[in-house]
Design brief:
41 residues
Length: 41
């Protein structure tokens, strides 16, 4: 395994974790806004 491929794998893992955290934040916000809309109507 070369250094470049190791870097690529690390980048992919980092991107995956960032995407997961972003998705979690977005879903939390979406659920919160959904609840907020549900309370208003």
């Amino acid at each position: 395994m070369t250094f470049a491929s190791t870097l690529k794998i690390c980048d992919a893992r980092r991107l995956q974790s960032v995407a997961q955290t972003t998705l979690r934040l977005v879903s939390k916000r979406f659920i919160g806004s959904k609840r907020f809309i549900g309370q208003r109507f």
